[in-house]
Amino acid sequence: MAVTVLLRRRALSSPYAISSCRNAVYVCCPFSNSDLHSMVNSTNLRFWRSYHNSGKFDLTDMTHPHMWYPKAREKKRNVYLHVGPTNSGKTYNALKRLEASSSGVYCGPLRLLAREVAQRLNKVNVPCNLITGQERDEIEGAKHNSVTVEMADVVTEYQCAVIDEIQMVGCKSRGFSFTRALLGLCSDELHICGDPAAVPLIQRILEATGDLVTVQHYERLSPLVPLKSPLGSFSNIKAGDCLVTFSRREIYTLKRRIEREGKHLCSVVYGSLPPETRRKQATMFNDESSDLNVLVASDAIGMGLNLNISRIIFSTMMKFDGFSHRELTVSEIKQIAGRAGRYGSKFPVGEVTCLDSGDLPLLHSSLKSPSPIIERAGLFPTFDVLSLYSRLHGTDLFHPILERFLEKAKLSPDYFIAECEDMLKVAAIVDDLPLGLYDKYLFCISPVDLRDDISVQGLVQFAENYAKKGIVRLKEIFTPGTLQVPKTHNQLKELESVHKVLELYVWLSFKVEDSFPDREVAASQKAICSMLIEEYLERSGWQPQGRKKFLVGPQKLLREYDASQMNKYFQEINTRPK
């Protein structure tokens, strides 16, 4: 499958964009303080009036972020911290309270978790909407929402709100979204679930809000036993095992090695797989009637999937984190190891070991150690503040505005500014286009994987077409009907990249609906990508005689959205009035 058929590539000029941005000229502020007050939206007006009575406006002052959310500050929230290790029931108890509430919201770190909670609530006759950056599943009459944390609504009032995996408040890239939910959710009750390492920080942050905070500690519901011996031979692999490694190529290498023994078939789970594929692979692994009784996975299993794992086996204790190869942290080891022995599963006792005996000391010491205390929470300025800052400096180039703001930002000791390297890279690209500041901001916060060339090319082409025409048709950069089952590892990687581009289109269609009108086509092609990847996974394994086929053939889905139907669709939309 030639990538050039799927995406029409163009060379990027980001080095030039970065150079031109950094040499931008700033001008003196053309606004009075009264002008500035009129431009700050109503959400932040009280904050600015309270903390800038001196007559001097300092938009880079981020020392009182709790005051960014006046609606939440009008309430004295009852906050319950549910903290404990993996598999301790902390989230279960918070969700029971959400089920019993008259209105509520669940905020999770992953789409898989948001979908799981929405399904759970709807199953017990509590109508619940699913809202993520790429999905909207609205239920008539629903007063509950299950959302990814970035989609948290800090204006609507709820009786009950739940934030899951609160330790991610310390995440360099996404922590600010958890901080926003923590400070901004307007609910009578706020239930916060996560690692005990976050408790001191959360307590300090909430001292300023006046909320009433209660901490409830949980213990693991089922035992987790660190083994004294490594796996040894691959012939010792047994049903219910999960081998953990940290690269796509190594995952498939281990899968082939295990399956060559002729005893087991493997499901695979890793971050680049589409969420639907991850969910299906997990389902097949959990299915007792399935032949896929061993899992090979990355740290993507650490959260978001319910897995019936008997034993976790670390193939390595090193990972590449995007910057360097390093040892796994105590928190990472405990999060992954804790997936073994799920309470209520057929494996009531979890075990954990390593492939290499030399890794056992780090494993054992980490499991005995508490997770390091989280010292600071992420913050990021709102678009309103960045917009004002750009007008103060007389430029609509987003890269220099963001870079200068980050240099000048003032924070209290409990906070840090979110990692913005990727955002600055995108800003350097879109600053070369005739776009308004908000449109540039939108592309900068879009979910694009900058380590993936095809994803970057998709983003650039979307931005260029949007800047030129104000509308982006999917057919201009993507040719429906060309998707095929991958035959090689590289083709699999390309198809995963195409899926990311289609997801980006869907995300943008929810933000600028009129300008990205082909959401249905993108969603259908995205589903086809997932099916083709699943077919590759099924074909790539050892095939015992009489093997049960779990996947519906992708050709059926492809026939539903074949090229002739796509052409008919495009002919129809092209005749619509412009």
From TrEMBL:
Organism lineage string: Eukaryota, Viridiplantae, Streptophyta, Embryophyta, Tracheophyta
Catalysed reactions, as listed in the record: ATP + H2O = ADP + phosphate + H(+)
Cofactor: Mg(2+); Mn(2+)
Name of the featured protein: RNA helicase
EC number annotated for this UniProt entry: 3.6.4.13
EC class: hydrolase
Primary location: mitochondrion
Keyword Cytoplasm: no
Family annotation (InterPro entries): DEXQc_SUV3, Helicase_C-like, P-loop_NTPase, RNA-DNA_Helicase, SUV3_C, Suv3_C_1, Suv3_DEXQc
A Pfam family the protein falls into: Helicase_C
Keywords recorded for this protein, A-Z: ATP-binding, Helicase, Hydrolase, Mitochondrion, Mitochondrion nucleoid, Nucleotide-binding, Nucleus, Transit peptide
Assembly notes: Homodimer; in free form. Component of the mitochondrial degradosome (mtEXO) complex which is a heteropentamer containing 2 copies of SUPV3L1 and 3 copies of PNPT1.
Alphabetical list of PANTHER family matching this protein: ATP-DEPENDENT RNA AND DNA HELICASE, ATP-DEPENDENT RNA HELICASE SUPV3L1, MITOCHONDRIAL-RELATED
